[in-house]
Design goal:
By secondary structure, the chain is mainly alpha-helical. It has 2 domains: about 5-105, no CATH class; about 105-139, no CATH class. Helices cover about 65% and strands about 5% of the residues. It contains 8 helices and 2 strands.
């Protein structure tokens, strides 16, 4: 999982200026992602979860339907996104001999010429586009 995209997920859930203290703290933890090790990041995330466990478990009941939902679902989503992607966030540190970057910027940049070619030939069917891309990549 690319650090840039993980941070974008966090920002999407928390906004750039979260108002609640739990959101502010989680955003600060997420900002350390690019500059830390897996062990330190996991410890920070676990300590944050322990601190805000009850807050994240809060539920609200809809008075009309009687159904409940989590009160702070966006903060929960941001936290669980980090927890879910944690095994994949530090792959580049586990295999230093492969020289894996922590973001996918170089990968996305290398496909920009393909995107441009596909955009130029916008009238092609999916099958024909696929053939064109396969031909370019096989060279």
């Amino acid at each position: 999982m690319c650090h840039f995209h993980q941070r974008q997920i966090i920002i999407r859930h928390l906004t750039t200026k979260p108002k609640l203290e739990a959101g502010i703290e989680l955003k600060k933890i997420a900002e350390t992602l690019c500059h830390t090790t897996e062990e330190k990041f996991t410890d920070l995330l676990d300590m944050g979860y322990l601190k805000w466990h009850d807050f994240l478990k809060e539920k609200t009941t809809d008075p009309i339907t009687g159904k409940w939902f989590h009160t702070h679902k966006r903060i929960r989503s941001a936290h669980y996104s980090l927890k879910t992607h944690l095994p994949y966030l530090f792959t580049y540190q586990k295999y230093p001999e492969l020289n894996i970057p922590n973001t996918t910027n170089s990968l996305e940049g290398s496909f920009s010429h393909l995107k441009e070619l596909v955009k130029i030939h916008r009238g092609l069917s999916y099958k024909t586009k696929r053939k064109m891309i396969d031909e370019i990549l096989s060279k």
